[in-house]
Amino acid sequence: MEYDIIVIGGAAAGLTAALYSARQGMKTLVITKDIGGQALLTNEIQNYPGYDLVDGFSLLNKFREEAEAFGSEFLYDEVTSLKKENDKFILKTNDKEIISRAVILAFGKTPRDLNVPGETSFKGHGVSYCAICDGPLFRNRDVAVYGNGEHAIQAVIYLSSVVKKVYFITRAKKIIGDDELVSTLNSLKNVEIFKDSSLLSISGDTSVKSIKIKDNSSGIERDINTGAVFAEMGYIARTDFVKGIVKLNESNEIIVDSYCKTSEEGIFACGDVTNTPYKQVVISAGHGATAALSAYNYVQNKKGKVASKSDWKLVNTVKTK
Predict the structure, then answer these.
(1) Which of 230, 129, 133, 145 is nearest to 185 (CA)?
(2) What is the DSSP letter of 119?
(3) Contact in structure between 95 and 77 (CB atoms under 8 Å)
(4) Residue 49 needs a FRET pair 20 to 30 A away by CA distance; which of 29, 92, 97, 114 works?
(5) Which CATH architecture best describes the domain 2-111+235-302?
(6) Contact call for residues 102 and 264 (beta carbons, < 8 A)
């Protein structure tokens, strides 16, 4: 399968890039493990224009909806390799090989893996890193969430509204977080919490069927039947697959110019993964728009078409006397 532009990353920068790319008529694919990235850790964003107060979950989910409305496609996977051949890019994920004319790197920090037996086998088949992406797929079924902190609590609360039951497994001995979040969690009737516990393995056939967990205090192990496992273990920066392809600084950030161009023609980058000094949602969004317009102009030039320097589109003309 071939695309005009592939965006790697599904947070503020990547989703905005996808929105602008698709709006310009580019066949656009977003490859990401989750939607929202680190912004999901934020309960209150008080300085995003147009909103008095909004949580990261709601804001980034709105970004996704807008990107999809303009035609962006989404693949919930992880890019494992990237190479250039004959002015096109070949990207490999865990399950696919995809071709693109241009690439936008916007992955910021990606969800940590669980590092337990069965995780790799069932990625995309019951193992998920994004509750809002995949939760609806398990409507009226039992699922498990493994993780710590407020982002894990938010995932549990969201999933409780769409699935039959949620098993919340956490290594924490005490649930700590925003008082309102914790209170909401404790009030949910379809959530069962296992504190001070570890996930040992994931089992199934063609998809996840069960997990094995251990109580860290007693050492007692138990099996839980579940159709999915949602990983909420925090985030980590992963730029290894682009080392040697684009230039990085001493902090392993991707170096870009004012047009979000990297050192490799046809590859653009935006957001927290770059050497842009300020890491804010609004800055990442603006950066994503810049990268998309630059990538659009690049693709148009490669197609031998006239590129645009403006995103303004004349929708209606009103004649006046």
Answers:
(1) 145
(2) T
(3) yes
(4) 29
(5) 3-Layer(bba) Sandwich (3.50)
(6) no
Tokens found for residue 47: 């300085």
Lookup: tokens for 32 = 């990401």
The superfamily CATH assigns to domain 127-232 is FAD/NAD(P)-binding domain (3.50.50.60)
Any idea where the domains of the chain sit in the sequence? Answer: 2-111+235-302, 127-232
User: Which of helix, strand or coil describes residue 309?
Assistant: coil
- In tens digits, the chain (321 residues) has pLDDT values of 899 999 999 999 999 999 999 999 999 999 998 888 777 656 667 778 888 788 777 888 899 999 999 999 999 998 999 999 999 999 999 889 999 999 999 987 778 889 999 999 998 899 998 887 788 899 999 999 999 988 899 899 999 999 999 999 999 999 988 899 999 999 999 999 999 999 999 999 999 999 999 999 999 999 999 999 999 988 776 778 898 999 999 888 899 999 999 999 999 999 989 998 887 889 999 999 999 999 999 999 999 887 765 555 544 444 443
Instruction: Provide the sign of the torsion angle of the four alpha carbons 275, 103, 291, 265, taken in this order.
Output: positive
